[in-house]
Design goal:
By secondary structure, the protein is an alpha/beta fold. It has 13 helices and 17 strands. The protein has two domains: about 220 residues, Rossmann fold, CATH 3.40.50; about 130 residues, Response regulator (Rossmann fold, 3-Layer(aba) Sandwich). The longest helix is centred in the first third of the chain and has 20 residues.
Length: about 400
């Protein structure tokens, strides 16, 4: 897919087009929402689901009467481009969105390296940017227009590892594997500290290049160390499944952890039965008592388009649209700088069903992290089971 080609989710896009035509008589203008996401490669399912959720939120808002500012009504339009999960393509996407499409609100961006490329322009040009990127280097008071739309390494990894270690106190060693990019290196730093703090010895911490298809040598090295735990912290589902399958072939049997594990479908496609027992920190289950009727309905619609359930990465692109709406209406302006200045003071109803505000002063120096629940899940008998749900505290 080229940079100038926008992905088309045909069945959903058609219904959205009909809706926008109906509501267009009321809406006086359209606000473009940019998306910098992987739409090809092993992270493509994250990107495609993210676009789906942005469009779903825009559809709901249009149906409910749009965004109201000083007597005018606006609707949202989601513009998605493929950043291929790397800095070079991320730069091209950034230039396309900001300089060609004149986007003033980024409703979501995925991948620390491409997000860093986008942020270099967005902050300078006064554009509000929402991101799922895990790197703490993109947060803080010097980035006043950047906001995080999902839980990141600092929110997920500490409670996940402590929970797993509490269930398996006899575990004394861990082998870690991450992609060799900004996401992987920054995630590795957080994981390494938490494992060390729990008293677990780190036998190895390796990196691999995105696009790798042969994981047997990597798995052989890990298995030879005989770790009690294997931590595939920030691997996308397709890669993580292959690694777990190779470890099973080699006879390794231990505790499996994937902090960014986003669901069972993508893992099972490449890992088969080897994914049994894995603990994840970014997956959501929709068949338990905590799932609402709305969540179940939207998830079923998404499964029909994507072939698998939604996860917390994709949900962030729904929540960001509602956050932008809340910010615009509080500021009573579509000027992104004015909207950004009030964003840390707004709250909105999240896809998770609860009111969400922003926090993060303690960790990052400013309130730019959505206060979202951390769901710890495990694969049990081939199904995803929620084990714990934690609501973050702090300022």
């Amino acid at each position: 897919m080229t940079i100038t080609t926008r992905t088309k989710l045909l069945s959903f896009g058609a219904s959205l087009g009909v809706l926008m035509a109906i509501s267009g008589a009321q809406a006086q203008e359209t606000i473009k929402l940019g998306l910098s996401i992987p739409l090809s490669g092993t992270g493509a399912i994250w990107g495609k689901g993210s676009e789906f959720m942005c469009k779903k939120a825009a559809q709901e808002i249009a149906q409910a009467g749009g965004v109201k500012v000083d007597g005018k009504i606006y609707n949202f339009e989601c513009l998605a481009y493929d950043n291929k999960y790397n800095a070079a393509e991320g730069t091209r996407v950034a230039q396309t969105l900001l300089n060609r499409d004149n986007v003033k609100f980024i409703a979501g961006s995925l991948g620390t390296a491409p997000v860093q490329a986008l942020q270099a322009l967005s902050e300078r040009q006064g554009v509000v940017m929402f991101t799922t990127a895990w790197g703490s280097s993109i947060k803080g008071p010097k980035f006043p227009l950047t906001f995080t739309q999902m839980n990141t390494a600092l929110e997920i990894i500490p409670p996940l590892i402590r929970y797993v270690h509490g269930l398996h106190p006899a575990a004394k060693s861990v082998a870690m594997l991450n992609p060799n990019d900004a996401t992987g290196t920054q995630t590795e730093g957080v994981s390494k500290k938490v494992w060390t703090d729990t008293g677990v010895k780190i036998l190895s911490s390796d990196f691999y290049e995105r696009g790798t298809t042969e994981f047997q040598p990597i798995a052989a090295r890990i298995a030879s160390l005989k770790p009690d735990v294997v931590d595939l912290a920030s691997l996308p589902p397709a890669d993580a499944g292959v690694v777990l399958r190779e470890l099973e072939v080699l006879g390794w049997k231990g505790i499996k952890v994937i902090a960014v594990g986003t669901g069972i479908d993508g893992l099972k496609a490449t890992g088969g039965n080897a994914i049994e027992g894995v603990y994840m920190g970014a997956a959501i289950t929709f068949d338990g008592p905590t799932a609402t009727a709305q969540q179940k309905a939207i998830n079923e619609e998404a499964r029909g388009v994507l072939g698998e359930s939604l996860n917390s990465i994709q949900i962030g692109f729904y929540d960001s649209v509602y956050a932008i709406k809340a910010g615009i209406e509080k500021a009573q302006s579509i000027d992104p700088k004015k909207v950004g200045s009030v964003m840390s003071d707004i709250s909105f109803t999240s896809f998770y069903g609860n009111k969400v505000d922003f926090y993060g002063t303690d960790a990052y120096g400013s309130r730019q992290q959505m206060r979202l629940p951390v769901s710890i899940t495990q694969v049990q008998d081939g199904k995803l089971v929620e084990k714990s749900r934690i609501v973050p505290q702090g300022n």
